[in-house]
């Protein structure tokens, strides 16, 4: 770690002073260091999107992912440091310099919005794993919830409960970030249905929730949707649940009387919402476990064949998705 010019200068001065190494002292120092070697634990950078840092450790799924990451880091004695990337003071170039100067050799990239297309670190210097952000360059190993499985499982459960006009509504940037896995699962299941029971998915731009809700309301009425699948639980007036029903945000549509509401990512603390429970904590665990192996086996840079690890979710009943009553016979 010492510059060659400095080494030569020190050696020249030592020679001028007549310094001679003591073999007995060398042997003692070697023995001491072997017995009392201090090994620096691997250091991991957990890099988050600065745009989401305000709520990263507050609500939603981000804290669950971080909880899983931290549990593995603690168990394996890894040093974990969080960096919020995307501010004026924390550019990719500055982060690259900080990581190298601190000897941090593992990078875990958390969920980034699709507006961030690439993170220009010198990936040849790091072991790295992405969480969910398939769209991010470089091409690295990814650990994610299995959104395709979530959509397919949701569709099947809604069909079993008697719903026939099932619609998917999600944001275009979520589709980009997750490689269209929600819509892929939905369309695979829908292809099995009669043409009369197929509903085109609704993709909306991220904007004010009232604007999104009005689009969803118009779409539900246009296609006679009887069950709504979405990862946007913000569309449901969660705090207005009276024990039996509520409404879609900023609309007159009642849940579940007018339309059932099935979440593709059931939020914690909402036992009345039915749908798919995603295991965000396990995503963090798997991502950290994979990165720890890479760090300790010195696997750096973009892999030749990046892998994708998908963590499945499970269905949970809820009052927002009751079994649909059969139409009365005349």
Report on the structure:
- The chain has 330 residues and is α/β, with parallel strands linked by helices.
- The protein is 36% helix and 18% strand.
- A 6-stranded parallel sheet has the order 2-1-3-4-5-13, sandwiched between helices. Strands 7-6-8-11-12-14 form a 6-stranded mixed sheet, with helices on both faces.
- The model has no long low-confidence stretch (mean pLDDT 87).
The global form is elongated
Largest sheet: 6 strands, parallel
- Strand tally: 14
Instruction: Name the helix and strand elements from N-terminus to C-terminus, one letter apiece.
Output: HHEHHEHEEEHEHHEHEEEEEHEE
Q: In what order do the strands lie side by side in the largest sheet?
A: 2-1-3-4-5-13
Please give a handful of descriptors for the protein shown.
330 residues, six-stranded parallel β-sheet, six-stranded mixed β-sheet, 14 strands, elongated
Helix and strand topology:
Layout: H1 4-17, H2 23-35, E1 43-49, H3 53-56, H4 62-75, E2 79-85, H5 92-102, E3 106-109, E4 127-131, E5 141-145, H6 147-160, E6 166-171, H7 172-177, H8 181-190, E7 202-204, H9 209-223, E8 227-230, E9 246-247, E10 254-255, E11 260-263, E12 274-277, H10 280-296, E13 308-311, E14 314-316
Parallel strand pairs: 1-2, 1-3, 3-4, 4-5, 5-13, 6-7, 6-8, 8-11, 11-12
Antiparallel strand pairs: 9-10, 12-14
Helix pairs in contact: 4-10, 6-8
């Amino acid at each position: 770690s010492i510059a060659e010019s400095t080494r030569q200068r020190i050696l020249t001065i030592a020679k001028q002073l007549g310094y001679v190494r003591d073999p007995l002292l060398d042997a003692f120092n070697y023995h001491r260091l072997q017995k009392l070697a201090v090994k620096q634990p691997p250091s991991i950078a957990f890099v988050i999107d600065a745009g989401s840092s305000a709520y990263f450790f507050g609500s939603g799924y981000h804290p669950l992912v971080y909880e899983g990451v931290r549990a593995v880091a603690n168990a394996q004695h890894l040093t974990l440091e969080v960096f919020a990337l995307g501010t004026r003071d924390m550019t990719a170039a500055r982060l690259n310099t900080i990581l190298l100067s601190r000897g941090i050799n593992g990078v875990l990239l958390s969920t980034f919005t699709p507006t961030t297309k690439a993170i220009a670190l010198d990936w040849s210097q790091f072991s790295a794993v992405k969480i969910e952000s398939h769209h991010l360059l470089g091409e690295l190993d990814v650990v994610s919830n299995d959104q395709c499985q979530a959509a397919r499982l949701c569709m099947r459960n809604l069909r079993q409960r008697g719903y026939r006009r099932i619609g998917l509504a999600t944001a275009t940037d979520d589709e980009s970030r997750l490689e269209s896995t929600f819509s892929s699962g939905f369309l695979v299941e829908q292809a099995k249905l009669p043409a009369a029971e197929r509903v085109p998915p609704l993709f909306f731009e991220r904007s004010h929730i009232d604007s999104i809700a009005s689009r969803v309301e118009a779409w539900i009425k246009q296609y006679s949707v009887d069950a709504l699948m979405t990862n946007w639980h913000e569309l449901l007036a969660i705090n207005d649940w009276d024990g039996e029903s509520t409404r879609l945000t900023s609309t007159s549509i009642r849940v579940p009387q007018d339309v059932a509401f099935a979440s593709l990512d059931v939020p914690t603390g909402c036992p009345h919402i039915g749908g798919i429970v995603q295991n965000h904590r396990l995503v963090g665990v798997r991502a950290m476990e994979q990165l720890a192996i890479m760090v300790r086996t010195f696997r750096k840079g973009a892999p030749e064949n990046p892998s994708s690890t998908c963590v499945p979710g499970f269905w949970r009943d809820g009052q927002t998705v009751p079994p649909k009553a059969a139409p009365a016979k005349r």
